[in-house]
Structure formats: structure tokens, C-alpha cells
Amino acid sequence: MDASILLVGGDDFLATLLVRIRNLVSCTVEIAPNPSEAMPLIQAQQPDLVILQGNQPGGLELCRQIKEQTRLAWIYCILLDYPTQMLAEAWRDRFWEMECRAEALESGADAYLWCPKNDAKGEALDIDVIFQQDRLLSSQIASGLRTVKNHRELMRTNDILSAIALSDPLTELNNRRALDWELPRQVQNARSRSEQMSALMLDVDYFKNINDTYGHPVGDRALQLISGRLRHNLRFRDTLFRYGGEEFVILLSNTDEQEALLVGRRLCRLISDQTFAIDETLSLDMTISAGASSLKESDDSKGASLLKRADQNLLKAKAAGRNRVIGGEDEEPELVKH
């Protein structure tokens, strides 16, 4: 994994830490002189680790801000103190270090390291002590990177599982669960932008006869071919779902009722005008029926009433003879002309 680390602190802190980091870890290192300049970098670049100067004003608040934002909370934060001699004099009883560590962890830091520059007498640290400090810093960075790596792998797994959960395995279209999530979102977007929105509900005509006559494998293949033809002939802003069985739903953003009817007629023609080659020995002629509806002020926020009208119009199209699209509430059915 290509690691990225952001160092936040004053000149002396950065000068000391940069040398140590580059000797300990192979990674990309960015620097920020203070917490206020660090936050925009963190939001834009989302580094794996942030190492902050412990005694710099605003450091604890920066940790708190990072952990309060869901999209940033996974970033591993290390607060690092290089105490002066005066602070080093208090480290024998460990009280000061314990107090600083508690405050850092309470603010959201994942780790706190205490690395004095001098011993209690103000003299340079023994080489063995410096080695142990470097070892501790290196191990803490490695621990942080492992944590981040595990988080990223978990997120990738969740993305895959989410995609599987929202995808129909037969047609590879969005499934009904995806529709339940997307429909309220599109309703909200349409209303917030004062835009039109419509829905089409489609059904393959006489599909049961295909299953009864040729068997379910042929029916499955027919659904795959119809799905592909629909998917490849939609506008970029349209969203296609397999609603269940041989039914499909299309959400049409920024589309009024008349335009939705035009889309429905075009799709009906695309299905009926060309046969479907199931295999080398079998081709089928198929048609679809469609019901259209457009968003009203009285519709609920989840889009259930919008979808219900589309379903009712689909039933009207079926009752009127199939291979046609019906929209509105009182419109006459319109047969698709070849």
C-alpha cells in the first residue's frame, strides 16, 4: 500500500520529524505548519496518517474535527510530543505524560507518543534511548497503517456487497432494493431543484407463455436480452431497474409527462421492431406494455404514489391490448405504431 502521511507542526518539530520519518518509513510525506492550514489538506487529500505536534495550539481540536467527520474519521491520528528540558524534569513520575496522553485520546487521537529531546539533567539522550524512541515511533506508524489498510479493505468489501445487494443477478440491472433507495432521492432532488420527474413501469407481454412453452432457461435469456436492449437505448439521465419478474421501472429525471410518453413509445418500438435471438435455433418476437406517471406536489416523499400511478397505467395498457403506453390519469391508450 502506498502510504501517505501529513505532518503538522512548527519548523523545529517538522525538521526533526521529517528526518526520522524518512529513515523509518517509505511513504509520501506532506507538511502543514499549523492545524488551520492542515484541515483543507486533510479534506482534499485524506492522508492515511496525521502526525501532529502535541504542544501546538489547535492540535487537539484538529483531532476532534477529523474524528467528527464520517468521511475522515478513519484517518489515524498520532499526537507526538518532544518536551523541552523543563517538561523533561517532570517525566520521572510520569504524571505529566499520563495527563497529556489522556487529553489526547479524549480529543480523538489514536495514539500519543512522548519523546523527550533531553534527559532530566538537560543533556542529550543516550543513543540507545533515541533508538528506542525511533522504534516506538516506527511501530506506532506501522500499527496505524495496518489499521487504515484494514479499514480500506473493509470499505472495498462493503462496496462489493452493496453492489451485489443492489444488483439483480440475472439481468445485472439495479434491483428493487436499489429502487427503494434511489426513488426517494430523485424525488427530493426534483423538488429541491424545481424540476419535473417521471417514471415508467414496463412489463413484457405474454411472458408466462414463453416460460410455459420453451422453459424457464429461455425465459431467463429473453429477460437478459430485453434488459440489454433497454439499457443501451436509454438517455444518460435515465435509471433502469428490474422491479421483479418481467417488470421493469425507469426513473426519468428532468422529464415531464409528455416526454415520458415519448420515451415509452420509443422503447416499445425498440422491443417490438426486432426479434430476439435466444440461441442459434430460436428467435422470439416480443413486445412490452408501459405505464407513465409524473411527479405531483401531492405525491409522497418516497415516490410510492408516483410509482402506483405508473403501475395503474401499465394495467390499463395491458387491458387495452398490450404493446402500448398509457400516461396521465384519464388518457386513452395509445397503440405503438410500426
What is the topological layout?
Elements: E1 4-8, H1 11-24, E2 28-32, H2 35-45, E3 49-53, H3 59-68, E4 76-81, H4 85-88, H5 95-106, E5 111-114, H6 127-165, H7 176-192, E6 197-204, H8 207-214, H9 216-231, E7 238-244, E8 247-253, H10 257-272, E9 276-277, E10 283-284, E11 288-294, H11 304-319, E12 324-326, E13 334-335
Parallel strand pairs: 1-2, 1-3, 3-4, 4-5, 11-12
Antiparallel strand pairs: 6-8, 6-11, 7-8, 9-10, 12-13
Description of the molecule:
Residues 4-130 form the Response regulatory domain. This is GGDEF domain-containing protein. It is a single chain. The chain is an alpha/beta fold. It has two domains: 4-164, Rossmann fold (3-Layer(aba) Sandwich), CATH 3.40.50.2300; 176-335, Reverse transcriptase/Diguanylate cyclase domain (Alpha-Beta Plaits), CATH 3.30.70.270. It is built from eleven helices and 13 strands. The chain has helices at 11-24, 35-45, 59-68, 85-88, 95-106, 127-165, 176-192, 207-214, 216-231, 257-272, 304-319, and strands spanning 4-8, 28-32, 49-53, 76-81, 111-114, 197-204, 238-244, 247-253, 276-277, 283-284, 288-294, 324-326, 334-335. A six-stranded mixed beta sheet has the order 7-8-6-11-12-13, sandwiched between helices. A five-stranded parallel beta sheet has the order 2-1-3-4-5, sandwiched between helices. Helix 2 (35-45) runs parallel beside helix 3 (59-68) and helix 8 (207-214) packs across helix 9. The longest helix has 39 residues, at 127-165. The protein is elongated, with a radius of gyration of 31 Å. It starts with a strand and ends with a strand. The relative contact order is 0.08. The model is unreliable at 86-91 and 330-334 (pLDDT under 50).
